[in-house]
Design goal:
The protein has seven helices and three strands; from the N terminus they run ααβββααααα. It is mainly α and 242 residues long. The longest helix has 45 residues. The model has no long low-confidence stretch (mean pLDDT 90).
């Protein structure tokens, strides 16, 4: 029954994830064909927004791929994808401005951004160790039975689930970070006159579609986190009956 319940939760999430991915690609493809009136490329937009805000310690680089844009705070560089860097489309400008939004979050000490930065190394470690720790806990629980209370194995299983939960927390914290970066992007594009009001609407569609992929990631993480919790309770319930 628990596996069926898991599938009933997982399948809609998979469908939503596929739809979100298709939507962001569709929105970007549409507005990547619409040239912005200012004729500014993604690179020009990024450098212009940084300069207008007095930011001189961030470089703008170029990376391969489509929609592989990201801000690397450790190296102080905004990496724009090939599809964004030299394109003067509404879509490219929106994506470039979004990455500058992340730069401004860091510069202005936006709390969710700082929290996500703290969680990155912890989450990376936790996601690698979660399943090995859970398996270790199960083995210890089978070998070292406790007549009363929780065995060491059960505590280790709880620890493993907690480690996995860090990835769910990371996905949760990522949502306000991404939505805020998009809001900042739209505001900067309007304030600096890079996009006209009617073009801002197109930029909003691109950025909102991209944000849906982060919602999908959170839902998927939640489903698997709940699955681990249910499996643990079933296992412990079976052990108590025996």
């Amino acid at each position: 029954m628990s596996y069926l319940f898991f599938l009933l939760l997982l399948i809609p999430c998979l469908i939503f994830s596929a739809w979100a991915s298709a939507k962001v690609n569709s929105a970007y493809s549409k507005y990547d064909k619409v040239a912005n009136l200012s004729r500014m490329t993604g690179y020009a937009t990024a450098t212009y927004l940084l300069r207008n805000r007095g930011v001189s310690d961030i470089a703008v680089g170029r990376v391969r791929g489509k929609l592989t844009d990201h801000y690397d705070p450790t190296k102080g560089v905004v990496n724009l994808s090939q599809s964004t860097y030299g394109s003067a489309s509404v879509g490219a400008v929106a994506v470039a401005a979004h990455e500058i939004g992340h730069v401004m979050q860091k510069k202005q000490g936006y709390f969710p951004y700082k929290l996500r930065k703290v969680l990155v190394p912890i989450t990376n470690i936790g996601s690698r160790l979660a399943m090995p720790v859970i398996i270790l806990g199960i083995l210890l629980d089978l070998l070292l039975l406790a007549d009363q209370g929780l065995s060491y194995g059960q505590w280790i299983m709880y620890a493993g689930i907690g480690l996995y939960g860090l990835s769910t927390l990371f996905a949760l914290v990522t949502l306000p970070v991404e939505y805020n970066a998009s809001r900042r992007a739209r505001q900067m594009l309007a304030d600096d006159g890079i996009l006209a009001p009617e073009e801002i609407k197109g930029a909003r569609k691109v950025l909102n579609a991209a944000a849906l992929t982060y919602v999908a990631s959170l839902l998927m993480s939640l489903v698997y986190f709940l699955r681990l919790i249910v499996m643990l309770f079933i296992l412990l319930g079976g052990r108590r009956k025996n």
